[in-house]
Amino acid sequence: MIESVVKEIGSEALNNEESLIILFDESVTEGLGKHCVIQKFSGARSFNLKEGQTISFDDQNYSIKKVGEVTNKFLDEMGHVSVVFGPIPTEDRLVNALYVEPYEVPTIKAGTLIKYQ
């Protein structure tokens, strides 16, 4: 299991019309940061997420249905992933995404614990 804590939420990161959360570690650029939820990892990280595993935001648990082609690499290198709370599209899938169920966007605040397991 790999854990992180939400350190900051960009001014445009959470949008009620989008079923998507963009996560980045603290290396995010200032311009991009306003669109992201900034997470800080505790300890080393080496991701190998697969379908059937879970991601949780505090006590809100989500089943991973699809892992994008570069998701684990981007998480290792820059703590970056787009979490999509919706159906897996047949075309134009995000290559850096986790498609998860249920389709409800979690409540996130500074201090939210994120667990990848």
TrEMBL record:
The lineage of its organism: Bacteria, Bacillati, Bacillota, Bacilli, Lactobacillales. GO terms for biological process: phosphoenolpyruvate-dependent sugar phosphotransferase system. One of its GO terms (cellular component) is cytoplasm. It comes from Vagococcus silagei. InterPro entries: PTS_IIA_glucitol/sorbitol-sp, PTS_IIA_glucitol/sorbitol_sf. This is PTS sorbitol transporter subunit IIA. It comes from the Bacteria. GO terms for molecular function: kinase activity; protein-N(PI)-phosphohistidine-sugar phosphotransferase activity.
